[in-house]
Design a protein that fits this description.
The complex is a heterodimer of chains A (38) and B (301). By secondary structure, chain A is mostly helical. Chain A has one helix and no strands. Chain B is mainly alpha-helical. Chain B has two domains: 154 residues, Orthogonal Bundle (Tetracycline Repressor, domain 2); 130 residues, Up-down Bundle (Four Helix Bundle (Hemerythrin (Met), subunit A)), CATH 1.20.120. Classes of the chains: A mainly alpha (38), B mainly alpha (301).
Chain lengths: 38, 301
């Protein structure tokens, strides 16, 4: 793990973005499955 | 003239992602997720794989978030104990207020996700377990009574109930039996740790049983709990939740746990307590793995 604060901040922002995107996909999938009654 | 360069980035923002992840107590999370998955698998009925995955994610995040709030509240005593001195909040890498916000937001996220993906009974028990861990165990009991982990241990026993509820929307006696297994396993597990970390707990002023009542008293209580676990671990066989595969593993492991407790009772050195602590982890893992394997085997035959 790097000790460079800027690199760590960039990493954290990317991780947050990835989590938000994954969450959106998951909520979409849940909605789809529930709607279709799968 | 001295050149003082001030970083525009706040400490929390520049903290490595690994330190944020460490706030979620990933090692504790592993056992929580595993027992939750077993509860989910043993429950009668079907859950779409994506929904099951979301339920497992909700249990993992909910448990991690509670751990994060626990670390926020405990940061003063964590600094006094060797075992917890390296935690991110103690090292000042992450701002306490940000850690608290992180924990609260993740708890809400986990409960909402559970409710949306499965049902609100499971979401209720997830919220209840998180609240119990934070308010009853961490804030209410831990610094006040040597029975802290006896009552507080209930928080860690909820995952199989949550997993079961995620599939069926109910919490029948079978789910509460899985709860009881973890509930009665918790005291000997944590007391084994507190026996060889006794000085650490005493320095931090946490009234663990060996600190308040002495090691001999604790060891007798540990043996009592392991004796209680023997019939309890076999209860899934009587309730026809599991067959002989689970029964024989539970019997062997429970006798092994009792043997460890007897060894700890007879010996003074820390090595016996340390061995019992690690065996206890193996014990719970084996019991739940055996329940799972037995269930899979019975569904195949």
């Amino acid at each position: 793990m790097t000790t460079d604060p800027k690199a760590n901040l960039r990493r954290r922002n990317l991780a947050t973005l990835a989590i938000i995107l994954a969450f959106c996909v998951l909520i979409y999938a849940i909605g789809f499955i529930k709607m279709k009654g799968l | 003239m001295t050149d003082v360069s001030v970083s525009p980035i706040a400490p929390s923002q520049s903290a490595p992602v690994a330190d944020w992840f460490a706030l979620l107590k990933p090692r504790v999370m592993t056992l929580v997720v595993f027992t939750g998955v077993v509860g989910l698998s043993l429950a009668p009925g079907q859950l779409h794989p994506v929904l099951a995955l979301a339920a497992i994610l909700a249990i993992a995040v909910g448990a991690g978030a509670s751990g994060c709030i626990n670390m926020w509240y405990e940061r003063d005593v964590d600094a006094l104990m060797r075992r917890t001195q390296q935690r991110p909040l103690v090292r000042g890498i992450i701002d306490p207020a940000e850690a608290l916000a992180f924990g609260v937001v993740l708890t809400l996220f986990a409960v909402m996700l559970m409710g949306l993906a499965t049902n609100w009974v499971a979401a209720f028990w997830l919220a209840f377990a998180s609240a119990f861990y934070v308010f009853v165990y961490t804030i209410g009991l831990k610094r006040r009574t040597p029975q802290n982990i006896v009552i507080g241990g209930a928080a860690g026993a909820f995952p199989p109930v949550i997993g079961w509820a995620a599939v069926t929307g109910t919490t029948p006696v079978e789910a509460w039996l899985l709860f009881a297994l973890i509930f009665f396993w918790t005291p000997p597990h944590f007391w084994a740790l507190s026996l060889y970390r006794c000085e650490d707990y005493a320095r931090a002023g946490i009234p663990m049983l060996p600190v308040v009542k002495g090691k001999a008293h604790t060891k007798r209580h540990m043996l009592a709990y392991t004796l209680l676990l023997l019939p309890l671990s076999l209860a899934p066989v009587y309730l026809q939740m599991a067959g002989t595969l689970y029964g024989s593993i539970a019997l062997g492991m429970s006798l092994g746990f009792i043997a460890h407790a007897l060894r700890v009772l007879r010996r003074e050195e820390d090595a016996a307590a340390r061995a019992m602590f690690f065996f206890s982890l193996f014990y719970l893992f084996s019991l739940f793995a055996a329940l799972w394997a037995d269930h899979l085997l019975r569904s195949l035959l």
